[in-house]
Amino acid sequence: MDHHIQAYFKSENDAESAAVKLKKINTRDELIDSIPGGGREVFVVPAFNFTSGATASSPGMIPAALGKTNRNSSEKFTHILEFKISSEELSEALDILGTTEAHIDEESAKQFNE
Questions:
Q1: Is the pLDDT of residue 91 over 70?
Q2: Angle at Cα 37 formed by Cα 43 and Cα 94, nearest 5°?
Q3: What's this model's pTM, rounded to 2 decimal places?
Q4: Could you tell me the maximum CA-CA distance found in the chain, to the nearest angstrom?
Q5: Does the residue 112 lie in any domain?
Q6: Which contacts qualify for 55-64: CB closer than 8 Å, 24 or more apart?
Q7: In 3D, which of 72, 81, 23 has the Cα closest to residue 47?
Q8: pLDDT value at position 113?
Q9: Domain assignment of residue 36, yes or no
Q10: Residue 42, domain member (yes or no)
Q11: How many domains does the chain have?
């Protein structure tokens, strides 16, 4: 099964850097685009390593964060990186995004943490 991933970034350079890192796996239909209006209406969480089995105290993991993240954040995301990835490589794609400045929408983050 394919997964459609949307990762949000604060700059085009950050999105391009993440796309380059993702080249080592089989992503498809990659697209980097600007977000009209700066993306403030999008609620996102950092794309930490969702698949590592890390505990709440581990670096890079959201400690029960999804209910506690500030929805009124002034963070402004200007670019989005979209791509498709197979289920077999989803974990590795998320690991790679976790090493970048990527943020993922809240609903996707909940799905990846399950």
A1: yes
A2: 40
A3: 0.71
A4: 36
A5: no
A6: 60/98, 62/109, 62/113
A7: 81
A8: 61
A9: yes
A10: yes
A11: 1
Tokens of 72: 């009124």
34-43 confidence digits (pLDDT tens): 988 755 555 5
- CA nearest neighbour of 65 among 112, 4, 5, 8: 112
Q: 86, 2 in Cβ contact below 8 A?
A: yes
Give the span between the Cα atoms of 53 and 73, in whole angstroms. 27
Q: Return the pLDDT at 105.
A: 76
Per residue in 20-79, pLDDT (tens digit) is 999 999 999 999 999 887 555 555 656 654 544 444 433 333 333 333 344 445 578 899
Residue 7, domain member (yes or no): no
DSSP codes of every residue in 26-52? --EEEEEEEPGGGGTT--EEE---TTS
Domain range for 32 is 21-52
Tokens of 97: 């995004």
